[in-house]
């Protein structure tokens, strides 16, 4: 069963450097101009507790199970403190990464058991009376080589960004698999093209759903 709320839950996914944050900011501006109240948030993070966990997750070595459990612990707090209240108030929630990232990074990137992740997903996203999933997931699909070239020199790489190219090949394949499993929720955005062309695709996905005119 899925949960219905008056708001909209839109997630942004893709490997590091795909262009998610850039277009999330643009979409937030456009939706606000369109009269919507928008909450912009991110994972791991979005609450004081989850931001504390983010610091550990991005900078402290740990095994894959610990990493997956901390990702989901941060997510549970984020859902309860931020996402659900905003959706209940009729807001649009734009979230930079959500559970698809755990399947892509911990599942495919690290090789952690996907069945365990599915169990954790079921526990963590079960809220009062239903199962919370995004209404739309914009998947910014870009090759690891292009993504790396966009990030190079931009900032000191964190634990994930320091992984080798083969890790990101697996993560990218993980996103493709998640998208194939939920075609009604995912929209693939070709993120290789110039920013304006990427934005056109994001805008089209929202227009098709009547969320922008
Ligand atoms: N389509 C594009 N063409 C060229 N450069 C781009 C494009 N989209 C984003 N960029 C640039 O690439 C860099 C990374 O973009 P951005 O921070 O939006 O990616 P991200 O997916 O949010 O990355 P991360 O997950 O690491 O935070 C930025 O410097 C941004 O200006
Ligand atoms: C939610 C989530 C995130 N990650 C990784 C992916 C990124 O490398 C970092 C977050 O950094 P960003 O600059 O905010 O994109 O965390 C992950 O491995 N698993 C997850 O569930």
From TrEMBL:
EC main group: transferase
UniProt xrefs under CDD domains: TMPK (cd01672)
Single GO cellular component term: cytosol
Binding positions (ATP): 14-21
EC number, UniProt record: 2.7.4.9
Keyword ATP-binding: yes
Coiled-coil positions: none
Catalytic activity: dTMP + ATP = dTDP + ADP
Domain of life of the native organism: Bacteria
This protein's record includes keyword 4Fe-4S: no
Keyword terms of this UniProt record: ATP-binding, Kinase, Nucleotide biosynthesis, Nucleotide-binding, Transferase
Function field: Phosphorylation of dTMP to form dTDP in both de novo and salvage pathways of dTTP synthesis.
Similarity-based family: Belongs to the thymidylate kinase family.
Protein name: Thymidylate kinase
Organism: Tepidimonas fonticaldi
Gene field: tmk
């Amino acid at each position: 069963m899925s949960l219905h709320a008056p708001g909209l839950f839109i997630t942004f996914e893709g490997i590091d450097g795909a262009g998610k944050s850039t277009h999330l900011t643009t979409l937030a501006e456009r939706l606000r101009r369109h009269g919507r109240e928008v909450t912009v948030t991110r994972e791991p993070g979005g609450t004081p507790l989850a931001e504390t966990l983010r610091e550990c997750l991005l900078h402290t070595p740990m095994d894959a199970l610990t990493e997956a459990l901390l990702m989901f612990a941060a997510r549970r707090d984020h859902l309860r403190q931020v996402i659900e209240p905003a959706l209940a108030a009729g807001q649009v929630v734009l979230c930079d990464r959500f559970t698809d990232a755990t399947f892509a990074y911990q599942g495919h990137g690290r090789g952690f058991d996907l069945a365990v992740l599915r169990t954790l997903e079921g526990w963590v996203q079960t809220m009062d009376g239903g199962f919370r999933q995004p209404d739309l997931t914009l998947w910014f699909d870009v090759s690891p080589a292009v993504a790396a070239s966009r990030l190079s020199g931009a900032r000191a790489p964190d634990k994930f960004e320091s992984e080798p190219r083969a890790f990101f090949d697996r993560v990218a394949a993980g996103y493709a698999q998640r998208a194939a499993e939920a075609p009604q929720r995912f929209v693939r955005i070709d993120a290789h093209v110039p920013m304006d062309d990427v934005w056109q695709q994001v805008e089209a996905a929202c227009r098709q759903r009547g969320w922008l005119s």
